[in-house]
Amino acid sequence: MTVDILTVFPEMFESVFAASILGRAREQGLLDIRLTDIRPFSAARHKNTDDYPFGGGAGMVMTAQPIMDAMAAVSASLPNARRIYLGPRGKKLTTQLARELAREPSLILLCGHYEGVDQRALDACIDEEISIGDYILTGGELAAMVLTDCVARFIPGVLGSSESPEEESFSDGLLEYPQYTRPRDLNGRSVPEVLLNGDHAKIAAWRRRESLRATLRFRPDLLETADLSPADLKILKELENECSSEN
To answer: 85: which of 8, 37, 55, 126 fits an S-S bond (Cβ 3.0–4.6 Å)?
Structure first.
């Protein structure tokens, strides 16, 4: 997959994308991340990319011309790319959406800044808007990093195991079960015995129960939309009774 990020602060990205899983994915040719600086496309004398908003108001607005010209240049080499603006009014980034985006051959991400982007640039250049959450950032650069990282995990080969992303939090609408590693005993705290006996069916059952327990405790709202089996509902009832008795 190719991801081209349009930004006025390209220097923010390299340390993130050169490290860890994303760095290895780039080295292996699984992920091609490109950074396009919007400023050189500005027709203004001083290459500025913002101006005061019509109608008044605080702050500055990113101007349309350099964004439109930068998008045209990038789209020429990625004609089938899905063009995304990282903004607070977009649909929320979810595991399902990340999995969908990972099937695209290329993405172009536009990072907003200041008080927003001239609407004409969005109307002309953007296919959809995506938000990473209901809060405000100083710019879209951090959001672009989050989206790229989230999507990359669903590209075959990036994690090294095709099953890994499907076993993590939110993959099936629930939070992930607790994880343990060596040593077996640590300051009087032991790894659950079920994880040590090699019985894969019992391990799977324990993990499902603990996943339901974690979701019930930390994010009960997720249970409203999770795909739950009759067995899951029975376990949840047992867990709710346990909580009631503890209180």
So the answer is: 126
